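Pasting as-is:
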Amino acid sequence: MPGVVRGTVVVFGILAVLFVLAAFLHMLIEDGTLAAGIFFVTLALACAVAAAGLVQRRPWAGHLVIVLAGLLFAASLGVFGAITIVGVGLVVWVLWALNRRESREWLTVRVRRR
């Protein structure tokens, strides 16, 4: 696995854990709404599926990662500030990392199963 893909997997794995913690905190500790908890759990699952797809070399994984990065960037615009800079950084990283030659080759070359 190329280093930039590995970095992307780590980032989305961390995001999945953070969204699970946010859902737990919001639903159990702060008596938040059920809709917000479902939103956080959905994002956690999406980030985990994207990271697993990259690890397993699924052809759709790159598209899912780009869509999730765009969604997280769009969501960060509502809070405009430091989190928006993180959202921009995530979009830039994903677009740069997944468009590198070794990433494209790694995601498109099929491995023969024995």
